[in-house]
Amino acid sequence: MRRLKEIVNHKKLNKTFDLVYENIKHGQNYQLLISAMEQIQELQSFDLILGSDRPSHDQNEIKEQGAIIISEQVAKSQILEKIYIKLNKNNIGNQGVFILFEGISKSQKIKTIKIDLTENDIEDIGLSYLGQSIKNLPQLQSLNLNLSKNQISIKGIEQLFEELIQCKSLTYLTLNIIEDLEKKNIIHAKQIGEYLSKCKNLKYFSLFLEKVRKSFQNSQCDCKDFSSQIRMCDQITFLDIQIIGHIGYYQNNKSFKLFKIFKLARLVQFKHKIVYSL
Fold first, then answer.
1. Does 258 map to a domain?
2. d(Cα 166, Cα 37) in Å, to the nearest integer?
3. Does 201 have pLDDT greater than 60?
4. In this structure, what CATH number is given to the domain that contains residue 121?
């Protein structure tokens, strides 16, 4: 009976709020978000679904106003350990990122963060705000960020890693980056490898990097250099790399065929997927 009670209590400490098609935008329906977030004070973890991968006229667009609502309630939590927020296509921008993560940084027991920020008009400064807040979470162990289709350059990635280096408890890191069609500041796997090698506490690293511009065929990115950087990350034992590019990108990176150099003795688990298209 005691065991059963413990399981029931555990379930009560976790909750999913699916508000994906509630048309929260333009000052309307924000009370739905407020009502949901007011419930998290008794939770150890929550999932908040506000973004959809499918276009819809009911798609939310919470912007800064919604970020404030989430931030204020997360900041008040004394027991929150794990959060997942799906915020893709909600147009929160740089200021929304600042507001959201400022609140998250005040919930000092958080250990796991997973946030989808796809298509939110975020620039390098927004990523800098994110990093500055993240480093103030002393117990953070796992960080999963989807930064796809924003206005982020390699400079923003560098700023993020400069802050992550200071996260002494961070052992799991996942980055998902699909580059914008019109963006000129190309993010190279090689450069990510350089920053990654400075994060001495990481044990697990997962990278999904998709390059979608055909002009990338003149890219000087050398994935052999990327793998060389990974080899210097002595602490990493779990590695998952997925890189997608068009045929020109692939032709300039034939070293992908040499992925066996990743297979170091220390790796407990190694996954990789390299694909290319016309």
1. yes
2. 30
3. yes
4. 3.80.10.10
